[in-house]
Amino acid sequence: MKKIALVATAAAFALAACGETTDASEDAIADSVEVPADDAMADAPDPVMDEDAMTDEEVDAEMDANEAVAEEAGDAAQATVDDALSAAEAAQDTMEDAAE
């Protein structure tokens, strides 16, 4: 029961923080939304095309190349770990043989 009361209280606070107006029929007015947005963007420069941007094909090729390099590095790391484990097992066997 305490959990329900806690969740209900949290939900009430969340809904209370949603906004100042309690009248849902109040529509957004262009003067209060669009005009300030237009004024804010009035001095912004027009967008320009990035000449250095990569094409989709170039992005795919670069990703494939990077993936291949990462796979090779992962394989090399796995081989190194396998070699280290083999060396550790051999050393353990040598120590056990020396102890007998």
Tell how many strands the DSSP assignment holds. Answer: 0
C-alpha geometry: flat
**Mean pLDDT figure:** 83
**What share of the residues lie within helices?**
over 70%
- Given the structure, what is the number of helices? 3
Largest sheet: none
- What would you call the structural class? mainly alpha
Radius of gyration from the CA trace? 32 Å
Low-confidence residue ranges: none
> How far apart lie the N and C ends?
67 Å
What is the chain-wise order of helices and strands? Answer: HHH
Percentage of residues in strands:
under 5%
Describe the 3D structure.
It is a single chain. With 100 residues, this protein is mainly α. It has a domain at 56-100. Helices cover 71% and strands 0% of the residues. The protein has 3 helices and no strands. The chain has helices at residues 2-16, 30-41, 56-99. The protein is flat, with a radius of gyration of 32 Å. The N and C termini lie far apart (67 Å).
Strand and helix map with partners:
Elements: H1 2-16, H2 30-41, H3 56-99
Question: What are the defining features of this structure?
Answer:
100 residues, mainly alpha, 3 helices, 0% strand
Quick overview:
By secondary structure, the protein is mainly α.
